[in-house]
Amino acid sequence: MQQPPLDPAREDGSPRLSRRAFAAAAAGAVLGSAFLPAATAGAAPRAAARRAGAAPAVTAGGDLGPNVIVFDPSTANIQGTLDDIFHKQESAQFGTGRYALLFKPGTYNGLNAQIGFYTSIAGLGRNPDDVQINGDVTVDAGWFNGNATQNFWRSVENMALTPVSGEDRWAVAQAAPFRRMHIKGGLNLAPNGYGWASGGYIADSRIDGTVSPYSQQQWYTRDSQIGGWGNGVWNMVFSGVAGAPGQSFPNPPYTTLDTTPVSREKPYLYLDGNDYAVFVPSLRTNARGVSWASGSTPGTSIPLSQFYVVKDGATAATINQALSQGLHLLFTPGIYHVDQTINITKANTVVLGIGYPTIIPDNGVTAVQTADVDGIRLAGFLLDAGTTNSDYLLRVGPAGASAGHGSNPTTVQDVFVRIGGAGAGKATTSMEINAHDTIIDHTWIWRADHGSGVGWDTNRADYGLKVNGANVLATGLFVEHFNKYCVQWSGEGGRTIFFQNELAYDAPNQAAIQNGSTAGYAAYKVDDAVNTHEAWGVGSYCNFTSDPSIRVDHGFEVPQKSGVKFHDALVVSLGGVGQYNHVINNTGSATSGTSTVPSNVVSFP
Question: Per the confidence metrics, is the pTM higher than 0.85?
Fold first, then answer.
């Protein structure tokens, strides 16, 4: 997102705390644990496997590791622990710390949990109202002089808040999901002082009062209930939201769908009695409102005894052995280098991360790939490109995948991709979706425009998202700064509800992005052979800081066919630093000089 240069003096690149140092800093907190009967099972199979020369069996269950902090209402000095972690993470945009802050069911009074980078805060109840916080969960931008456009990589989930002032502040940008929340009051999406802000995403949440975006440029809200919505800047999109404003794009810029055609909420960790389990919500069609409106979210509970709990030191070989045993994966907060692809081959496998676990492929391997099977759930982790170019970072289904999965699709939720920023990294294609019927529910795929290891060829990444599968749905799609197409869609029947994009800031000149006879690569390309595709609430922005004279023919390039439909599309030149000639194909007026005013197309064709 557009922002002034990062002050390197404010970055925290300190290493993760040792267990002893963390324990001292977090006095009174309870480290998560779940020693289930299955945790001790498997010693004999391991010994037998060693004797047979096979890979040793992996033990399931176990504790949650040193960077998961679990509170209950009797825990001493909760506020002190929250403050200590925030102090470490507030400006650690490219640091190595990773934390999950988990609250057992109960009532907590007088807390203000400020949430910094790579920090997830969540309730451990079956439903949001099981954890009641009389206080706030806050994201602000004091670390960046009131500019919230770099408040990435943090999350809140599955709790109820009664804000002290009557309004909670959640001033975030990309990769900062707000899920399964009940706000007993209002929600303010802007930083203190109403500085720049560019987020964001809400799902399966109930906000009793008004949501006030103020300076937020764009936002997507899905399957929720709100008391009202305050304003819009460029692009506010709603699907399945009770209380949403009516369709009115571009003035005000509201795109409103009464329902979400298909959705399934993200899996989440919770306490089933005294034992940890992961709840996997059911598929919904034509969804509207929260999934827990009738008391509890429908779905299936999986005990932790069926998960390999991935902690520091885990290898790709061990992870793949766990998958081959039919175990699910729970990644705890940490950074994981993998020297072989994490290969998910069994239907209905859950791969869930908490606390922004980060997977880095070594030697150019693909980080994660799945087979062409039903119902895989990928959720809650960050893929960070390695220094050796990977052809792909995530592949959902192999090339040529052909099975239908309409009744039990794979879901990709809060899975984020980063190319550069924390150091030089390269990947030709960040994410490729080959499996039919896949749901991509909130992703930020980012080729870094700031940080370390950043340059036109230093963090080279040609494509952000490629979709080859049929009937793929994207809800909350954020893709930015790729060297060629940010999104290239080749599958039939694709749908996107909300798309936010910036073209690569650092294109050195017009020739560097010339696409045959076309000036520049579109942000979102639907291939010429596609006959059916539909998108709602889509925007692309340019800010060619290396050469402001660059022109791009259009933000969106699609075949001119009756089955290919776009609703509420816009392009914006940020301060006139580069320009678009049209919005979609040759339709829509050019962006206007130095005025940061959108050029809109309400309906295409």
Answer: yes
